[in-house]
């Protein structure tokens, strides 16, 4: 069975090979017929050209010899002129191809020298034809990319000019607004009103106002807590802190220290009153810590606002220094003198004092 299968496979392979050979034979016969047809056409063309050549050489036998020579000379002159035109066109085409080939050759040599720099042991590198074509195509793509980049650069320069024009327009508008605002607010020559400075001051005051509202809310909560503590203290017995009086929830550091000193050295009895006192003490301490954390957060927020304010003022002063409207002490000033007190509001110190007093 295995031998039969092997023979069957061999027979199938032979059949396939025979089919392939028959197809190749058909293609070869078709090519042979085409070549025969081309050979016959070339033979006929050769005979026709040979006949024309003999007619040109011998001339028309019906004409006399003088006329025959004139006709031959005119025909030769026309043929020579046409041949000269063809040759001149071919020369132009060849010169153009030569110039392109020289340019490509120069670029390829430059590329080869760049690749050979620092590699003396390799020697001269010969590029095959397909690598040269790849290099030429890469150079063409690089040229197209360079043209696109030049066009994009031109577009960007035009856009930059438009942006500069818009900037000059907005600058003139801001100057006019500053002049009008200065005229409306009293026309003080010693103090120039700046819209940007007013916007910065307004933003700073808004942040300070929100922070003060939060501090007022915190103070109100503390006041309510102290009021409740005082009411509880008034309602309690006037003989001081008895063992039956629970803690009010608001303790001073001195009261906490006294309680710890009183309870030091002896263990408290496990009574509901002692447990309640300890819970009240822990609650009071946690509330005090929470209040201190809130105060610290408000102080950090205040510092952040002041830092932003200082950075804005530094940027404004740097802008004025670059524009020539302000300079350091001892240096020549411009035509306009601007004081630093104009950019720092007078109420800032009072607000800082209020914030520090509220933190304490």
Automatic annotation (TrEMBL):
Keyword set, alphabetical order: Coiled coil
InterPro entries hit by this protein: CC149 (IPR019179)
Residue ranges of coiled coil: 11-180
Compositionally biased spans, kind Polar residues: 237-247
Region annotated Disordered, chain positions: 230-249
Family from the record: Belongs to the CCDC149 family.
Name of the protein this chain belongs to: Coiled-coil domain containing 149a
Organism: Oryzias sinensis (Chinese medaka)
Lineage start: Eukaryota, Metazoa, Chordata, Craniata, Vertebrata
């Amino acid at each position: 069975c295995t031998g039969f299968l092997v023979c069957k496979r061999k027979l199938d392979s032979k059949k396939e090979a025979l089919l392939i050979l028959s197809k190749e034979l058909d293609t070869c016969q078709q090519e042979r017929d085409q070549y025969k047809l081309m050979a016959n056409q070339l033979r006929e063309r050769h005979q026709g050209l040979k006949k024309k050549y003999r007619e040109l050489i011998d001339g028309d036998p019906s004409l006399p010899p003088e006329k025959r020579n004139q006709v031959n000379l005119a025909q030769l002159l026309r043929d020579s002129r046409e041949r000269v035109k063809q040759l001149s066109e071919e020369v132009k085409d060849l010169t153009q191809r030569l110039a392109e080939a020289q340019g490509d050759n120069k670029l390829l040599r430059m590329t080869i020298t760049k690749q050979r720099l620092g590699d003396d042991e390799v020697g001269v590198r010969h590029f095959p034809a397909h690598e040269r074509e790849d290099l030429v195509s890469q150079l063409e793509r690089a040229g197209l990319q360079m043209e696109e980049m030049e066009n994009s650069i031109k577009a960007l320069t035009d856009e930059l000019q438009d942006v500069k024009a818009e900037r000059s327009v907005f600058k003139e508008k801001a100057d006019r607004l500053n002049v009008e605002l200065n005229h409306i607010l009293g026309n003080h020559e010693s103090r120039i009103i700046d819209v940007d400075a007013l916007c910065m001051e307004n933003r700073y005051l808004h942040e300070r106002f929100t922070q003060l509202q939060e501090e007022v809310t915190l103070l109100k909560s503390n006041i309510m807590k102290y009021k409740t503590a005082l009411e509880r203290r008034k309602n309690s017995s006037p003989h001081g802190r008895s063992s039956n009086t629970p803690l009010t929830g608001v303790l001073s550091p001195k009261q906490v220290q006294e309680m710890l000193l009183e309870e030091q050295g002896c263990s408290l009895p496990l009574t509901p009153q002692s447990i309640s006192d300890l819970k009240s003490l822990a609650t009071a301490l946690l509330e005090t810590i929470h209040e201190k954390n809130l105060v610290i957060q408000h102080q950090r927020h205040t510092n952040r606002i002041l830092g932003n304010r200082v950075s804005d003022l530094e940027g404004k002063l740097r802008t004025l220094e670059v524009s020539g409207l302000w300079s350091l002490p001892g240096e020549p000033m411009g035509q306009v003198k601007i004081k630093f007190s104009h950019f720092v509001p007078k109420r800032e110190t009072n607000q800082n004092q209020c914030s520090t007093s509220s933190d304490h």
